[in-house]
């Protein structure tokens, strides 16, 4: 019974940590995506640079550009 309780406690703590990390990531994404769109629309940065600076994949940046009507130059 004690082992079950320890496992439950450990699982709860890990789950709480995961949920906090997810919430933090969602906040960061909410801040980052508009900045990425702004940079792409301004045309001052190439998609490659946005990929390098943001940590997003090339495909994700291309999709973000496409969804926002931004045509690569």
Walkthrough of the structure:
With 73 residues, the protein is mostly helical. The protein has helices at 2-42, 47-54, 58-67. Helix content is 81%, strand content 0%. The N and C termini lie far apart (64 Å). The mean pLDDT is 93.
Characteristic key phrases:
73 residues, mainly alpha
Count the E strands: 0
How helical, in percent, are the residues?
A: over 70%
> How many helices in DSSP terms?
3
Output mean pLDDT: 93
In N-to-C order, the SSE pattern is: HHH
Termini separation:
64 Å
Beta-strand residue percentage = under 5%
Low-confidence spans: pLDDT under 50, at least 5 residues? none
- Radius of gyration, whole Å: 19 Å
Major sheet characteristics: none
The structure class reads: mainly alpha
Overall spatial form: rod-shaped
Tell me the layout of helices and strands:
Blueprint: H1 2-42, H2 47-54, H3 58-67
